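Hi there, hope your week has been kind to you so far. Thanks so much in advance, here it is:
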Amino acid sequence: MTFEGIYTPAITALTADGQIDRHAFAETLEYLIEAKVHGIIIGGSTGEYYAHTAQERLDLATHAKAVIGTRLPLVIGTGAIRTEDSVAYAQAAREIKADAILVGSPPYALPTELENAAHLQAVDRAANLPIMLYNYPARMGVSMGAAYFAAIKQVKNVVAIKESSGDPAQLHFLARNYPNIALSCGWDDQALEFFAWGARSWVCAGSNFIPREHVALYEACVVAKDFDKGRRIMSAFMPLMDFLESGKFVQSIKYGCELNGQSTGGVRAPLQAMTAEEKQALKNVITDLKREVAQITGGAQ
């Protein structure tokens, strides 16, 4: 499998009483397909996997596959503290015929690089599917470094990495030393830098509610290789990037979806809703972003 384009880590819609809303979740997936994103990830941080039971995660993956079919690549997240749980999610991904799995470092456990490599190898054996690694030390507590990559070099299913360390040196390390592992931007305000270093995909939560603007940046930088245009689009994105990193990330993504008329149902505890002032500030940022990108790309305002 080749990872190219915009991959959306889909939100999980909830009912008023906090249960998963299967109908609204299906509508979310249909919206993303219609918007022409290039792939969908289920069971990621934006989807609030950490607040779901194991059965809910399995049911969501199965439901997503039923809705999407073969229209877009479906990637299933396997994140868990215990390797045994990640293995179970990987096996389930294989059973539903997912296209790939997302494999990160087990959070909280703080494994060594060799222990982390053994974790990956166990998950790989369970699924035998293409793997996108997920390096996010801020949430996982450990980073995938030189010893890790040396230890997993025989894992042929590793085809890509969502690099979310925020460290440009890590980006340069991967681009120089592991050209066989496709780079995917996982740190949104560095998307332009990732594309300049050869990344051909971007896993971006904001594409849940402004997918076409994210596709526009990908097309400018990767397809047209017009980095002058890309810089202008990226500049328009920066106020949104700053807002999302200021706190209430998932809440902001879901509110962006609500502005599109989508049903999201809020978030699960321990997260809490945005204030009216926060919502208005985000609405203003999104309105400005859409107008600026439309001016750059020649689209309708």
Remarks:
- The chain has one domain: 5-224.
